[in-house]
Design goal:
single chain; eight-stranded mixed sheet; 12 helices; elongated
Length: 457
């Protein structure tokens, strides 16, 4: 009987055991992928994408249990959806994967429609039972703040769900009276661990934001059922320009303590008509997709007293000249606002005025000139030109008279340029040609151009 080589037998046994272990590992991975389980790496932690998908799956299961209406608002993830090559790649993958929800960042952002949700503290307990750390950020409810009550109530604004180094950021969107969605800023209390999350890099929270209500669509991303904005490209455009400024109620209250509000029937009637005109102008310009903002006295009224100045007698809007459309006049006339005058031309000092019901709508077009921007003015009887110079500014959203509308983000600089350091003191005797500190004489229109640049109806 041949002698058995013990070394060969040992090698054979080791090889067979290794093959068996590899088979078991392969089978377990197959089983785990079908049942939502995840295999830990050598150090007892999931790989980056696996960890993020694992957290997102747990998060979506949790919100589904509580019937919460959440949808994906992560800017990187939504941007990836516009890349056809990635969509094709995702459609061909059969194993669990994470292309869209797992990005180069350690967090993914979702939004919750706050008006469809009743706060339930057990949600946080259930999250912790599932192995998640939860941080809740609260703030004042601006819907309940007014000049009569500056306190407001605390409401949840942001939630952060964390497992290991991975996060889901849940932003709460509340419906405001202007029929839009609003989220609050993410402000940390001193007791909060600043290392809990990369707060400065989060998509939402540096400022408050305002959005139109998006239509949602249910889709499958990375093997998970996820709601997304149906027009996610439009949502991304809104996100890039979503910064929201709250009306400065505290300062407005102080103003009214010095200068009591005019509650006469004439003032109340003007405010009602100005509100109607402002809403009509907003609808008309929004249908044309022309961005605009509160300018001149209307901007001052919002910033100083959170309202319309009752003795101003008009509504003032600003538009960048690059956004001018030749059908603007026709659109306003179709809306029932006949043109009152047209001064200037597209290349220089354009100004349009439309007549509402006892209230005039003035639209000033702004020109970009290096470090400054300006709008023009024209004196009809003399042809003299004037130039109103402002420091550069960006646009933010706000709410006025139950309307979501833009104002210059640098509102104080804008108002001070137009009304000087004493802008907080009412002045009823105002000469548009000489009173503004930022006005400059700008020559005169040649008489041969008057028929074009001075049109009074």
């Amino acid at each position: 009987m041949p002698r058995i080589n013990k070394t060969a037998v040992l090698v054979l046994l080791i090889a067979a055991s290794s093959i068996f272990l590899l088979f078991q590992l392969y089978y377990y991975r197959q089983y785990a992928s079908k049942n939502g389980l995840y295999v830990f790496g050598g150090k007892g932690s999931l790989s980056g994408n696996e960890a993020q998908r694992h957290l997102i799956k747990k998060f979506l299961g949790l919100v589904h249990k509580y019937s919460l209406s959440v949808f994906l608002v992560d800017s990187v993830s939504l941007d990836l959806l516009s890349q056809d090559a990635l969509l094709l790649k995702e459609s061909k993958l059969k194993e669990p994967h994470c292309i869209f929800l797992c990005t180069h960042r350690e967090f993914t952002t979702f939004a919750l429609l706050g008006n469809l949700w009743k706060y339930d503290a057990s949600l946080l307990e259930a999250a912790e039972e599932r192995g998640m750390e939860v941080l809740e950020i609260r703030g004042k409810d601006p819907r309940l703040v007014s000049m009569d009550d500056l306190a407001g109530n605390d409401i949840p604004l942001h939630f952060l769900f964390k497992m290991g180094s991975r996060l889901v950021h849940l932003v709460v969107l509340y419906e405001r009276s202007g029929n839009y969605l609003w989220h609050g800023p993410l402000r940390l209390k001193p007791s909060v661990d600043r290392k809990f999350a990369p707060f400065r890099r989060l998509d939402f929270g540096r400022y408050a934001g305002a959005y139109n209500r998006p239509e949602l669509a249910l889709t499958m991303l990375d093997g998970l059922d996820v709601r997304i904005p149906r027009n996610f490209s439009q949502f991304l455009r809104e996100h890039s320009q979503a910064r929201f400024l709250e009306c400065p109620y505290k300062e407005a209250r102080a103003f009214y303590q010095l200068y009591p509000d005019d509650l006469s029937p004439e003032a109340m009637d003007f405010r009602m008509k100005a509100k109607s005109l402002l809403h009509l102008a907003a609808r008309t310009l929004n249908e044309l997709a022309v961005p605009f903002w509160l300018s001149s006295g209307t901007c001052l009224g919002w910033f100083r007293q959170c309202s319309i100045i009752p003795y101003s007698k008009d509504v003032d809007l600003g538009i960048w000249i690059k956004d001018y459309r030749h059908d603007i006049t026709q659109a306003f006339q179709k809306a029932g606002l006949p043109i009152k005058h047209k001064f200037g031309k597209v290349e220089d000092s354009l100004e349009l005025s439309f007549q509402g019901l006892d209230v005039k709508l003035d639209i000033f077009f702004f020109y970009d000139e290096g470090d400054i921007v300006w709008n023009g003015g024209t004196q009809a009887k003399s042809g003299k030109k004037f130039k109103y110079v402002f420091p550069r500014f960006q646009l933010c959203w706000t709410e006025l008279l139950e309307l979501k509308i833009r104002v210059p983000c640098q509102t104080l600089d804008y108002v001070q340029a137009n009304y000087g350091p004493d802008w907080n003191v009412p002045v009823k005797a105002w000469d548009w040609k000489s009173s503004p500190p930022n006005v400059q004489e700008n020559g005169a229109w040649p008489v041969r151009e008057w028929d074009e640049v001075i049109q009074v109806y």
